[in-house]
Write a structure and sequence with these properties.
This protein is of the alpha+beta class. Helix content is about 20%, strand content about 30%.
């Protein structure tokens, strides 16, 4: 990872003094453990002195005790006999702690045979008290029982004895060393001219009296007294602590474990708040609280009380902490809607912050989503993980694609301790980049929950009393951010202590602190160390108001890491796309059916289905970066959501189809079919109509309700069906057609060459490779490809610790042998569809691909089936083009983004694999090509090539990820001009949401027929419908939502067969805002309208 802001180096003399002082209080004991790899099933510690026969555990080059991966056990043991001194400094009466840090799936710590602490790979550090008041000569025995991770070698990273003052005698040398290091850090960064004064004061330490603790400690106190004039300068700064416990809803554990971890974490925090009333705590994910409310109601009530008291904050904003590259825009809207509704209903207030510390990048439309969801702040720390470029801002204005603005905050690291020097270094970096002396710190064990510990809180109390540490204040994030971003023309006082902001600082001892926490005593002067005669003059400190104004970021927030998550575990991406599309259609047609009083609107069932989808969009489920058990559960939930959506859709379509007025049949055996269009533009496309199994599809043809014959073809499928080209199906509407019996016509023989052709495209396959030798755009005669198109390319993808998450940056240096063509043959050839099947072999895998060209279609579809059996291989498909362009454009949630194909900056260079939703496009203004996808999201581009990533094959954390049968589709869409003029957005939506058909039996024979109608006609517009649903607050109102899709102003009209009245524009929470003219839509604007519906006509 790139370094953060580089802080000036503290002078070596000061660093050496701090180290020398620490060596009087800290002792590294990593090299004195005896190790035995015995079974963890053996309880307790070793008996007697048997451990003495064990060899000393060796240290590796990192000074760690390491042992093999694969859940291998290791037992370490040693006996500590307390010496009289450490490097000459007397230890009697001090508190002895053992500080440990490990990398292990399981860690049990036993003291004198008694289990005193358990941990794991996330709860991976602790400080154990071995002696309250050390007596030289006494002994204590410690056993560590460790289990290595399944995917990585285990390690004991830290084992250190810490000797601390246990009375009012004053701070021990190690504490003073950290105080001096904190002061030196601030002086080195903000006032280097004062460093010689600090160094001079250190010269007065009585090193010759180390063995006389009273005298030596007195000299340390005198040095502190001499440096007291710096205290007020430090105390003008504030570190705002907020207890935190990052809890992934699933990752290296199944969801069921998450509930257990959440309950344990929250009970721990509540218990600590009894003893430490200053402790504040925050958590996100309303989905988690909803589980608690249902399954642990007494705990949930306690949390509600703490929220009301101002000691807890629900910093949520979204239903879960989702991935924000792969979900569609409507799903993001629902994350915000359901998250904010829950916060309001259960905790009495909306969240002002989108707390997203660990998601893998953020699309450019997110500021508009958040702004429309009542959210003022966006917070993440994930951009600190960039592998190439450090993100330049800690506090900034993030301007979205449409111009919406939100305040962005780069959070401090999560999963941290109360570590004063690290905290000071972070606060200095924050102050350097923002100009602000108030910084946030998030102490607490995380990833698998945990939260603050008693030891953290004791340390916080102690450091709050230090005169050489910034003011330490417990509080909440939103009040802090409000204070930091207030109008710079207003006064900016610091936050005052309250229930939500409790300060602990020198001179304000915490009355509830346990007596074992030594307060800082008065600082006597040492006769040989004169104090500063006057307070030093320092540069000004901006405590609450940025100066200069906040920088503005006008781009996506691309994470320069985890690029493989656009592809890994394709089943999750496929389920997500299918569920989003199915719920869109289910809501749409359920709303129409309810408006016509055909069936009740299934609000509860739809909400349950949506929440299943939103949960599975969590940032370690949808990206595919979890263990196999997680996906077993996720797939069950996806299937339940999909089944609910399908059931609602089928019920609604059936009701509408039988309601549609049907004329007298043109033939006694004629079968009426209603073809539905779920999208808000007219479509002329092929629809597949399932027939009764007893019928022979070759003996049926179709005609329009007006009697015009329609192109018809029997489909070669397991169940009999007809392919019919249906013209002009209205926007969000239907068209009636008839199926009529006929004589079977002889099949049309396919050509001898491997050529597919219609009025728009002519496609020629290369008989040697199975790739596309030529793709001619018939209208212009333009050749699409330079060389062969649709080339499979495989590369070795190894060497990444985050195997499922990442693609190896050097993968292109390790190409594998090309695919071997096994067969080409015709599957179907007729007036409606032509399909050629090509079979390839790649190492142990088989790729079967159907090239499919429909009548009237401007796209070539490629339906693909891969039997995938590779290991750590990435498979791409390349499209070398005859056009050249400096940028490629990609769909993002409710928008599109242009990214450079000729990178000129380090940031551009880092975007060598990028996400897209349904399409990517390369155009030169005269001609271009869009690649449409169903659920493959990873792309890369050069000025003359687009390439789509199809599959990965990681081995951790799911060893069998994506192995076996994979099915997916993509399409090639050549066009004139640019993607806007070619209506690529509509083409991609059409590709993902085909026309729907419903066979009516028996035909009702209505008198007043209406062969085609639009329920919802929004006019000729670039506005794309994303939802038509019943309002949350009233079953008499409906919400119509969509977005402008091309970056140009457009108009919006509301017509169609349904009687509706626009009540006004609302936000994503379905709340009315300021009156606005909704019929004119600004570029990229998301518009939601509240509709009142009258009785059906």
């Amino acid at each position: 990872m790139p370094p953060a802001t580089v802080l000036p180096v503290t002078p070596p003399q000061i660093l050496a003094t701090c180290d020398r002082l620490r060596h009087l209080s800290l002792l590294d004991v990593r090299d004195t453990w005896h190790g035995c790899p015995e079974s963890l099933a053996v309880p307790g510690a070793p008996t007697g002195d048997s451990w003495k026969t064990w060899p000393l555990a060796p240290l590796n080059d990192r000074h760690h005790i390491a042992w093999p991966q694969g859940k291998v056990p290791l037992v370490l043991h040693q006996r500590f006999t307390w010496p009289t001194d450490l490097n000459g400094y007397p230890l009697a009466g001090l508190t002895a702690r053992l500080a440990l840090r490990w990398w292990a799936d399981q860690a049990d710590i036993l003291v004198n045979g008694v289990l005193v602490h358990t941990g794991d790979i996330f709860d991976c550090w602790t400080r154990i008290v071995l002696s309250d008041r050390l007596v030289p000569g006494e002994s204590v025995e410690v056993s560590l029982r460790l289990l290595s991770p399944g995917h990585d070698a285990g390690a004991l990273v830290q084992a250190e004895l810490v000797f601390e003052a246990a009375s009012d005698d004053g701070p021990e040398p190690g504490f003073v060393a950290d105080e001096l290091a904190v002061l030196a850090t601030y002086l080195a960064q903000f006032d280097r001219d004062q460093l010689p004064t600090l160094a001079s004061a250190l010269d007065q330490i009585a090193w010759d009296a180390v063995g006389d603790r009273d005298r030596f400690d007195q000299s340390l106190m005198a040095v502190r007294s001499a440096l007291m004039p710096y205290s007020s300068w430090l105390k003008q700064r504030t570190l705002h602590c907020l207890g935190h416990a990052h809890l992934d809803l699933a990752w290296l554990w199944p969801v069921a474990d998450t509930w257990v971890a959440a309950e344990a974490t929250f009970r721990s925090v509540l218990a600590l708040q009894q003893d430490f009333p200053e402790l504040t705590f925050s958590h996100s994910s309303p989905a988690l609280f909803a589980w608690l409310e249902q399954h642990r109601p007494e705990l949930f009530i306690a949390l509600q009380q703490q929220v009301k008291a101002g000691r807890w904050a629900i910093d949520a904003g979204l239903w879960v902490e989702p991935d924000l590259n792969l979900p569609g825009g409507e799903a993001i809207a629902r994350q915000i809607l359901y998250g904010q509704r829950y916060c309001t209903e259960k905790f009495g207030t909306m969240s002002a912050i989108a707390w997203l510390p660990d998601s893998f990048g953020f699309s450019w439309q997110l500021p508009q989503f958040l702004s429309q969801g009542g959210i003022r702040y966006f917070a993440t720390q994930k951009l600190r993980w960039n592998d190439t470029n450090a993100f330049p801002h800690d506090l900034f204005i993030w301007q979205g694609l449409d111009g919406s603005e939100i305040t962005g905050v780069t959070l401090p690291p999560i999963g941290t301790d109360i570590t004063p020097v690290e905290m000071a270094q972070y606060a200095c970096q924050w102050e350097t980049t923002t100009g602000l002396a108030d910084a946030l710190w998030l102490p607490g064990v995380g990833d698998h929950g945990g939260g603050p510990t008693r030891d953290m809180l004791l340390k916080a109390q102690r450091w709050a009393e230090s005169p050489f540490f910034p003011t330490l204040r417990w509080g909440h994030a939103v009040p802090l951010f409000d204070a930091l971003t207030r109008d710079p023309r207003a006064d900016a006082p610091k936050l005052s202590p309250s229930h939500s902001s409790i300060a602990l600082s020198a001179g304000e001892p915490n009355q509830s602190a346990p007596p074992s926490v030594p307060p800082t005593p008065p600082l006597p002067l040492h006769p040989s160390t004169p104090p500063l005669t006057h307070s030093p003059t320092h540069p000004p400190i901006y405590s609450s108001t940025p100066s200069p104004p906040l920088p503005t970021w006008r781009d996506e927030l691309y994470l320069e890491l985890h690029r493989g998550c656009y592809t890994t575990h394709g089943d999750q991406k496929q389920y997500n796309r299918r569920c989003e599309d199915q719920l869109f259609q289910a809501e749409l047609f359920a709303s129409i059916a309810a408006i016509y009083n055909l069936r009740p609107y299934p609000a509860a069932e739809l909400e349950t289905a949506w929440k299943r989808v939103l949960f599975n969009q969590f940032h370690d489920i949808l990206p595919g970066s979890s263990i196999p058990e997680v996906f077993e559960q996720a797939n069950e939930d996806w299937q339940l959501a999909l089944a609910a959506g399908d059931r609602i859709l089928q019920d609604s379509l059936g009701a509408l189809a039988h309601w549609c007025p049907v004329p007298t049949p043109p033939h006694p055996q004629a079968v009426p079919v209603v073809v539905f269009n779920p999208l808000n533009w007219e479509r002329s496309e092929v629809v597949a109509i399932a027939l009764d199994p007893a019928l022979d599809p070759t003996r049926w043809h179709a005609q329009s309700a007006e009697g015009q014959p329609l192109l018809t073809q029997a489909e070669q499928a397991d169940t009999p069906s007809l392919l019919v080209y249906v013209p002009a199906v209205p926007s969000v509407g239907y068209r009636l057609i008839w199926l009529l019996p006929t004589e079977a016509a002889p099949p049309t023989p396919p050509p001898a060459e491997w050529i597919l052709e219609n009025e728009h495209l002519r496609v020629t396959l290369d008989p040697a490779t199975g790739s596309i030798a030529s793709l001619i755009h018939q209208t212009t005669g333009t050749e699409t490809f330079q060389g062969c198109g649709n080339q499979f390319q495989a590369f070795q993808d190894r060497g990444q610790y985050w195997d499922a998450w990442n693609i190896a940056p050097d993968y292109q240096d390790h190409p594998l042998a090309p695919c071997q063509l096994k067969n080409i043959g015709w599957i179907e050839y007729g007036p409606v569809r032509q399909t050629l099947r090509v079979v390839h072999r790649l190492n142990q895998s088989t790729i079967i691909q159907d090239y499919c060209l429909d009548a009237g279609s401007s796209r070539l579809a490629l339906h693909t089936q891969v039997d995938w059996h590779e290991t750590q291989v990435v498979l791409k498909v390349a499209f070398p083009l005859t056009v050249s362009a400096p940028e490629a454009t990609y769909e993002i949630p409710f928008g599109a983004i242009a990214r450079s194909t000729t990178p000129a900056t380090p940031q551009d260079n880092a975007k060598w694999e990028v996400p897209a939703l349904r399409w990517a496009d390369l155009s030169d203004g005269n001609f271009g090509v869009s690649i449409l996808t169903d659920y493959k999201h990873g792309f890369d581009a050069t000025p003359t090539q687009l390439r789509l990533t199809l599959l990965k094959a990681p081995i951790w954390p799911d060893p069998g990820c994506d192995r076996g049968l994979q099915t997916f589709s993509y399409a090639i869409y050549p066009h004139t001009q640019g993607w806007q003029q070619a209506k690529t957005v509509a083409a991609a939506r059409n590709f993902n949401l085909p026309l729907l058909s419903w066979v009516i039996q028996p035909p009702p024979g209505a008198k007043n027929s209406l062969p085609a109608a639009s329920f919802l006609d929004l006019g000729e517009t670039t506005w794309v419908l994303s939802a038509f649903k019943q309002a949350e607050s009233s079953d008499q109102h409906y919400i119509l939502r969509g977005y402008e899709s091309s970056g140009t102003e457009t108009s919006l009209t509301l017509q169609g067969a349904m009687p509706m009245t626009v009540m006004g524009a609302v936000n994503l929470l379905e709340q009315p805002g300021e009156a606005q003219e909704w019929s004119t839509v600004a570029p990229w604007q998301i518009v939601s309208l509240a509709l009142s519906v009258g009785p059906a006509q």
